[in-house]
Amino acid sequence: MNGINFEETSINLPTLFMIETLDDTQIEVSIQKQQYASGVQPMVYFCVPLRAFKNSSDLLGRSSVSDDKLVYVISKTNALNLVHMIKVFGMASKRHNYDVVEILKILLEIINNR
C-alpha cells in the first residue's frame, strides 16, 4: 500500500452472553477497544427481544417509526434479570464494581431513612 509492505492481522475480542434469563432476554458483555485511549473496555448490554415487550404486538408486521415506544415491564417473574444485570455490570471492571457499590449504598440509605 503506497509502497509500504503491510502484513494483516486480526484482533479477536471476546463477547460473553448470559442467556439464562426468565423472558428470553440476554445479558451481553462485549470487550471492545477503547475509542480515545489505549486498551480495552467491557461494554454491558441488556438485549430484549421484541416479544418480551408488553406492547410488542403494536410493531409486529410493520416497520417502526421514530415515535414508537416499547414497554418492558419488570415484574416478580423477571425481576431477577435486574439482579443479574447489576451483578454482571459490577463484574465488568473495577470502576463498574465501584459504581455498583456506590449505587447500592445510596439505595440502602434511602431505605433506612424511610
UniProtKB/TrEMBL annotation:
Q: Give every Restriction endonuclease type II Pab1 domain span.
A: 2-105
Q: What name goes with this protein? A: Restriction endonuclease type II Pab1 domain-containing protein
The species this protein was found in: Candidatus Desantisbacteria bacterium CG23_combo_of_CG06-09_8_20_14_all_40_23
Superkingdom of the source? Bacteria
Xref: InterPro entries:
Restrct_endonuc_II_Pab1
Short name of one Pfam family? RE_R_Pab1
